[in-house]
Write a structure and sequence with these properties.
This protein has 115 residues and is an alpha+beta fold. The protein has a single domain, classed as Beta-lactamase Inhibitory Protein, Chain:B, domain 1 (2-Layer Sandwich). The protein is 37% helix and 25% strand. A four-stranded antiparallel β-sheet has the order 1-2-3-4. Strand 1 and strand 2 form a beta hairpin. The longest helix has 18 residues. It is elongated. It starts with a helix and ends with a strand.
Amino acid sequence: MIHKSKISRLILIVFLILSCAKQIDKKFDSKKWKNWEETEANLFLRWDMRNDLIEDHKLKGLSQKEIIDLLGEPEKKFKDQFRYNLGPARKGINYGTLIFEFKNGTVVSYQIING
């Protein structure tokens, strides 16, 4: 009985630590973004640069070519949508995706999906 209680407390402590993990923001770097590979050394690189990308770059109104020039080829490309893998979201097992919606070849909206 005591053993189960200790394990339960340990799981709770680990969960609390992970949920309170400090958010790390890195300055957006187009070259690093384009060359990102999901390796242990760079696992969170795109996720950590996403806020700077969104806050410091006017993304709405950019053409598909301008998005590709800035971010490289998307992992998934549709006629009116680009999807970029952001890697692990630093919260449990969730992965992030940056999605651009286009109308007439121009960004009309974008969002980050975490899940």
